[in-house]
Specification:
Length: about 280
């Protein structure tokens, strides 16, 4: 996400219409499935977004009902569906004023269809805690590691996600890759597995990943069009772009752990990563 997009989203929240504020404060703010306001998806900023249901709610002024506005709205809807797999509900400001209860009922029906508040977790992570009302962010601990034979060569990554008594292992690999790409892929895949915004305690032995995030290097590369301060191209811009967006979505706290030492979770991630890399030899 470019810094100016984040600023635009903040400005939109600050200057929200009375209809947006009514929908937010009287309904969405305390809805069982958590909604967020002004969320960036690629070139677009959506009004309201529920990650659990993969649902976007947009409120449109009169300009959206002119021909150019309708064309742009269709393009936006198509992009969100094809790129992110999102469902979009669109209402006018007049709908909020004249049939507010009907709008709320339509949103509730669609959200419950894809993320029923009373349903079992169904393999999602972190699992539902059964709470209602406005949610606090859950804290998830993640360990990740990457491995590569040859660098470049066959590689793999492993990740462990922990939430309370729940634990989940993930792993994958590629036939021709690098160690750094596997380190990044492990972190990205673990964060993408979270079905709602979380506070994440992320443990990794990769200085490449942690230093670039903690010291702001990756954001600097992005701001310069994926060029480093020495004017050389930044490597793995596709993965860094995805990871920075995920770090904007979640609250990620970074921790370095010494590799191949006495941390059992890091060692297990290494085992998973090596096992995946061997599949391609």
């Amino acid at each position: 996400m470019h810094p100016w997009m984040k600023r635009n989203a903040q400005d939109l929240r600050k200057h929200a219409t009375k209809e947006e504020n009514k929908l937010w404060y009287q309904f969405l703010r305390t809805f069982p499935q958590q909604f967020r306001r002004q969320v960036v998806f690629g070139p677009y900023i959506v009004d309201f977004y529920c990650a659990q249901a993969g649902l976007v709610v947009e409120l449109d002024g009169s300009q959206h009902f002119e021909k150019t506005g309708v064309d742009q709205d269709q393009k936006r809807t198509r992009y969100l569906k094809e790129t992110y797999g999102l469902t979009l509900l669109r209402f006018s400001n007049l709908d909020i004023l004249q049939r507010f209860e009907g709008v709320c009922a339509a949103i509730m029906q669609e959200a419950e269809r894809y993320a029923p508040s009373s349903a079992p977790c169904g393999g999602t992570f972190p699992p539902e805690g059964g709470r209602s009302g406005r949610r606090t962010m859950k804290t998830v601990t993640i360990y990740t590691d990457g491995a590569c034979s040859g660098n470049p060569g066959p590689g793999g990554w492993g990740a462990i996600l922990q939430y309370g008594a729940h634990e989940k292992e993930l792993s994958g690999g590629a036939a021709h890759t690098t160690n750094n790409r596997m380190e990044l892929t492990g972190v990205i895949t673990a964060l993408k597995a979270l079905k709602e915004p979380c506070t994440v305690e992320l443990y990794s032995d990769s200085k490449y990943v942690l230093d670039a995030l903690q010291k702001g290097w990756a954001k600097g590369w992005r701001a310069r069009g994926w060029v480093k301060s020495d004017k050389k191209p930044a490597l793995n811009p596709d993965l860094w772009a995805e990871l920075l967006d995920l770090c904007d979505y979640h609250q990620v706290n970074l921790h370095w752990v010494k590799g191949h030492a006495d941390n059992p979770f890091n060692n297990r991630c290494d085992q998973l990563a090596v096992a995946e890399s061997k599949k391609y030899k």
